[in-house]
Design brief:
- The protein has a domain of 177 residues: Cholesterol Oxidase, domain 2 (2-Layer Sandwich).
- Helix 1 runs parallel beside helix 13 and helix 5 packs across helix 13.
- It has 535 residues and is of the alpha/beta class.
- Strands 1, 2, 8, 9, 10, 11 and 22 form a seven-stranded mixed beta sheet that branches. Strands 5, 14, 15, 16, 17, 20 and 21 form a seven-stranded antiparallel beta sheet that branches.
- The protein has 13 helices and 22 strands.
- 25% of the residues lie in helices and 20% in strands.
- The radius of gyration is 22 Å and the shape is globular.
Length: 535
């Protein structure tokens, strides 16, 4: 089969491109996704997120032992379902700080990726249910709303954070990122708004768009330094699909460098070590991996203030019935609806710590249940200096990649992360939360020294699921893609996903990934970029 464009990966970016490229009825587009459909109700229910990071609809990968975390191996959820991360994440709609994108332009050499240039694409994507101003718009595909009915403990947390000196902020995506508040969410009418539901499903009937699920891509086909198609695996056999114009790789910060390397595109020494013949020596592929490492404190509540007991069978049934009949109740919660941005390093250019209030204990981490329900406060250091890699274990497309975020290889990251954890503990101990919080259980009152806190962090830390940077765009010698996201030294091949971000944004990465795809669609189709926002 021959198509104009083949999009490899139906995740947050791939679904956006499938929509935008197929708007032209003269262009044929194929979207290839290794995962299956998002038909389970868990993908629709906002609270379904709690089931997702434990392996549902994911590849089942883990990191290599982290030498700066006492050898910890960390579960590393990467989505394997249509919609990708947008189908299984906690639905937080955060864009980061304006200075993040200005750094892409000034420090990485990514022309036209400043905040003024990307803001119009955030707005084009957005269908905000409440806000219309210089920073927000409505009428776009992506539903954006505020939490339906936050429980009282969420408001007590807001007061406690203000007691700790963090100001209230009702829009982290507006003029100022600093502060504490309720997050905006990628939900619409109490349902998840993934890129599958928002971008792809409304256009699935287009005659020029073909979507193939459960179809893993094995290799990019290259002829004379030009990508001409892909090989996919179908029922134990290999099928060749050809692209007349471009192959667009949208497989994420782990999947995209993995497929490039399986295709012989990457650092020659790493390819040789994996037994892959070199097609194009491109040293930056799989390098520059950045991610947010998460630490957390957990308190036992004085009563039924969070959602832990909803896990009891009769309560689960009632919550599901509430949701199906009335779109109310615990299932409408994304479980991490409240939080904010503040400073570990007081000299930082912008907030470098992000808080997520978890309405339960061990929603992700599997922490043992307490006598009473619990509440979790996650903290993540947002601008790590550590850099890691994604490499092949061998030439087998079915083999898991070697994921090495190299967490805390720079001591500055550890220092700031521990400061963020101390800030989280301080907030949870404030007077505003006294009616709701009985006692801290993790790290626990016995953990006070820096060494004890460090050992606790080694035992409990986890990824925030925000990997970026492994096919970074820019003008430097290690850049993999140009600012228009073409793979350097190749024709007919682009990468459009979080892997092209030269620096991780100071936020959750789903909204920035959607923005990247929106902007890339104009470049691919040869359209003029949207006018930059007025500063």
């Amino acid at each position: 089969m021959v198509y104009d464009y083949i999009i490899v990966g139906g995740g947050s970016a791939g679904c956006v491109l499938a929509n935008r490229l197929s708007e032209d009825p003269t262009i044929t587009v194929l979207l290839v996704e290794a995962g299956g459909p998002d038909t389970s109700m868990l993908f629709r229910m906002p609270a379904g997120f709690a089931k997702m990071t434990k392996g549902v609809a994911s590849w089942g990968w883990s990191t290599v032992p982290q030498k700066h975390l006492n050898g910890r191996v960390i579960w590393y959820t990467q989505a394997k379902v249509i919609g990708g991360g947008s189908s299984i994440n906690a639905q937080l709609y955060t864009r980061g700080n304006a200075k993040d994108y200005d750094a892409w332009e000034t420090e990485a050499g990514c022309a036209d990726w400043s905040y003024r240039c990307v803001l119009p694409y955030f707005k084009r994507a957005e269908d905000n249910q409440r806000l219309v101003n210089d920073y927000h718009g409505y009428g776009g595909p992506l539903g954006v709303s505020y939490p339906v009915n936050p429980p009282p403990i969420s408001f007590a947390f807001l007061r406690a954070a203000q007691e700790a000196g963090i100001p209230f902020n009702d829009d982290f995506n507006g003029a100022v990122q600093d502060g504490i508040g309720h997050y905006q969410l990628t939900t619409r009418n109490a349902e998840r708004s993934s890129t599958a539901s928002a971008y792809l499903n409304p256009v699935r009937s287009r005659k020029n768009l073909t979507v193939r699920l459960n179809t893993p891509t094995l290799k990019i086909l290259v002829e004379n330094r030009r990508a001409v198609g892909v090989e996919v695996g179908v029922s134990g056999r290999v099928e060749t699909l050809r692209a007349k114009r471009e192959v667009v790789l949208c497989s994420g910060a782990i999947g995209s460098p993995r497929l490039l390397q399986l295709s012989g595109i990457g650092p020659a020494d790493a390819l040789a070590a994996a037994g892959v013949s070199v097609v194009h020596d491109l040293p930056g592929v799989g390098a520059n991996l950045q991610d947010h490492l998460d630490l957390y404190a957990i308190c036992e509540c004085t009563g039924d203030h969070t959602y832990d007991r909803v896990a009891q069978p009769h309560r689960t049934a009632w919550a599901g019935l509430q949701y199906l009949l009335f779109k109310t109740g615990p299932v409408t919660s994304t479980l991490f609806e409240t939080g904010g941005f503040w400073y570990a390093d007081k000299e930082a250019r912008s907030p470098d710590i992000q808080f997520h209030l978890g309405l339960g204990s061990g929603i992700e981490a599997g922490v043992a249940a307490m006598r009473n329900p619990g509440v979790t406060l996650n903290s993540a250091f947002l601008r790590p200096r550590s850099r890691g890699t994604v490499r092949l274990a061998n030439a087998d497309p079915a083999a898991a990649p070697l994921i090495d975020p190299n967490y805390w290889s720079d001591p500055y990251d550890r220092k700031c992360a521990l400061k963020g954890l101390q800030m989280a503990r301080d907030i949870l101990s404030r007077p505003a939360l006294k009616p709701f919080v009985l006692a801290e259980r993790l790290p626990g009152d016995g953990i006070r020294s820096e060494e004890d806190l460090l050992q606790y962090a080694y035992r409990s830390c986890k990824t925030d699921h925000h990997p970026v940077g492994t096919c970074a765009m820019g003008s430097g010698e290690n850049a993999v893609t140009t600012p228009d996201l073409k793979v350097r030294g190749m024709d007919g091949l682009r990468v459009v996903d979080a892997s092209v971000m030269p620096f991780v944004p100071s936020c959750n990465t789903n909204a920035p990934t959607i923005m990247v795809a929106e902007k890339a669609s104009d470049a691919i189709l040869g359209r003029k970029p949207l006018p930059a926002a007025v500063s």
